[in-house]
Design goal:
Blueprint (H helix, E strand, L loop, with lengths): L3 E7 L2 E12 L4 E5 L4 H16 L7 E7 L11 H11 L10 E2 L2 E2 L5 E2 L4 H11 L3 E4 L3 H4 L7 E4 L2 H8 L31 H13 L3 E4 L6 H7 L9 H14 L11 E4 L5 H5 L9 H4 L4 E4 L7 H13 L1 E6 L2 E6 L3 E6 L18 H10 L10 E4 L5 H10 L6 H19 L12 H7 L4 H14 L3 H18 L6 H9 L8
Parallel strand pairs: 3-4, 5-8, 8-9, 10-15, 10-16, 11-12, 12-15
Antiparallel strand pairs: 1-2, 2-4, 6-7, 13-14
Helix pairs in contact: 1-2, 6-14, 6-17, 14-17, 16-18, 17-18
The structure holds zinc ion.
């Protein structure tokens, strides 16, 4: 007796499971062994009803064995292979292709969408076998390159296909609609704030982490949110990576090249942001993979949460563990933080006086330090405009650049980066590892001396120095310049003199 191959999930990874069914005489009973969870036990009822819809009434003692026994299995992913195993054991299914089968059954035999189709497609490709899955999952696997996948609407249709009575339905090629980017707010609506606008553009172009510090009403939250509208589109590889996370969570997997933009509130739990919980699910930091994770009112976040973000922000992956196991999720995020300059919010404000004592200010500055702040490439002040500045701006009605214009520059700068770093498997300047910084970000002797002098003056750490170089590279890319020049370095240095250890 050979088993029907199915899958189970461990994080964003699909693992193969063999479903073996044996039927002996006696009173009707179904037992499922091999560490099934509640959902697998419930699948008994679904499978039985779905088979009845095909006209098969199960009889006898049926034992279902899910192998290997030592890995936990979950969800309705195994309904289809269990049903096929029962059909096989009853002699209704003889030959069937060597493949992976997945899907949850409705009581009437329909195949329901399951989570994990994208990881399953990766596994099928690795094993060199086709994947059979519910039609509702077709769209998400269509983007996985090199996978052979077939879909079916219901169990009856799947069985006819496997018996060769119906041609298999290949997953149609992916169609990625050109969705307009939602620039809301649009940079055209943001008054003044030349430096913060520029920093936002550099952040989007090179995927650099950004800190915006300003009083309430300065527009820092608006600037942070406007970044969503200037991000470059996801490339094919990045698109599949983001689908992998969403598919694992069973979320909407409509393919889109729009980068994720996730806002986290300071009341959020560490599990919801970093991932974990009973099912070792990915958190916001993984949902924001290849996009933006925005933490507004950063100083209000609990220390243990920000400490937990250090590794994923630095490494681009996050490992979550529990008694049930350890899984890794991708987490290459562009981190955007917004914070007030002091506890009362008005330190350095042109109009309202700050009520904080020097001790208060010192205590507050300590909140704006630590491992996350040390990993911010761009730090800018977002001062509130004075009434006269606002009037002057309003009077002149000087049109500000729109998000669409800025995004064009960002896209061109990102293209230069993709071409430059392709051979290293990287996509943007923020990802450049330390060893490549020295080898690939070369300066003229005069510029090197200038940077060394400034680094000493500003007390920059070695890591801080690398960050300046990477940002300089992005500034040069936005300008379309082949080499990093002094003006690019000088500008990059203006974004690094506020908080943390540099
Ligand atoms: Zn204050």
């Amino acid at each position: 007796m050979s088993g029907i191959p199915g899958i189970t999930l461990k994080g964003i990874e699909a693992l193969p499971v063999e479903v073996e069914v044996e039927i002996t005489g006696g009173l009707f009973a179904i037992s499922i062994v091999g560490l099934p969870d509640v959902a697998v036990r419930e699948s008994k009822e679904r499978v039985r009803a779905a088979l009845r819809s095909l006209g098969l009434n199960l009889k006898g003692r049926i034992s279902v064995n899910l192998a290997p026994a030592d890995i936990p299995k979950e969800g309705g992913l195994l309904d289809v292979p269990i049903a096929l195993g029962m059909l096989q054991a009853n002699g209704y299914l003889k030959d069937y292709p060597r493949a992976l089968y997945m899907g949850e059954l409705a009581l009437d035999g329909r195949l329901r969408r399951v989570r994990g189709a994208v990881p399953a497609a990766f596994l099928a490709r690795e094993m060199g076998v086709p994947l059979y899955l519910p039609s509702e999952n077709a769209e998400e696997v269509a983007l996985v390159p090199g996978v052979e996948a077939y879909c079916a609407d219901n169990l009856g249709e799947l069985v006819m296909t496997l018996q060769g009575e119906e041609p298999p339905q290949p997953v149609p090629p992916a169609f990625i609609p050109e969705m307009p980017v939602n620039a809301d707010p649009d940079f055209a609506d943001i008054k003044g704030q030349r430096q913060a606008r520029r920093a936002a553009e550099i952040a989007a172009a090179g995927h650099h982490n950004l800190l915006l510090v300003g009083s309430p009403g300065s527009g820092k939250t608006m600037i942070a949110k406007a970044i969503a509208g200037i991000l470059p589109p996801l490339n094919d590889t990045e698109l599949v990576e983001t689908l992998l996370v969403r598919s694992t969570l069973g979320m909407d997997t409509k393919p889109t090249r729009i980068r994720p933009f996730r806002i986290v509130h300071f009341t959020a739990s560490t599990v919801s942001v970093c991932g974990g919980g009973n099912n070792l699910m990915p958190g916001e930091v993984s949902l924001a993979h290849r996009g933006v994770l925005f933490l507004d009112e950063y100083t209000e976040f609990k220390r243990d949460l920000t400490e937990s973000l250090r590794a994923p922000v630095e490494d681009g992956t996050i490992t979550v563990s529990r008694a049930t196991g350890t899984v890794s999720y991708p987490s290459r995020v562009l981190l955007v933080l917004a914070a007030n300059p002091c506890a009362c919010g008005y330190h350095g404000d042109p109009v309202i006086n700050c009520k904080c004592s020097p001790t208060d200010i010192e205590r507050y500055r300590r909140k704006l330090s630590g491992p996350i702040i040390d990993r911010i490439d761009l730090q800018v002040q977002v001062p509130r405009l004075t009434p006269s500045e606002l009037l002057a701006l309003g009077g002149k009605e000087e049109p500000q650049e729109s998000s669409a214009v800025i995004r064009e520059r960002v896209i061109n700068a990102r293209k230069m980066q993709e071409d430059r770093w392709r051979e290293y498997g990287l996509t943007c300047n923020a990802e450049i590892p330390e060893k490549l910084v020295k080898r690939c970000l070369v300066l003229s002797e005069a510029d090197r001396d200038y940077l060394a002098m400034m680094a000493a003056k500003m007390n920059l750490s070695g890591r801080g120095l690398s960050r300046v170089l990477k940002v300089s590279r992005t500034i040069a890319d936005i300008a379309g310049d082949e080499d990093i020049q002094k003006k690019h370095i000088a500008e990059a240095l203006t974004y690094r003199q506020l908080y943390g250890r540099g």
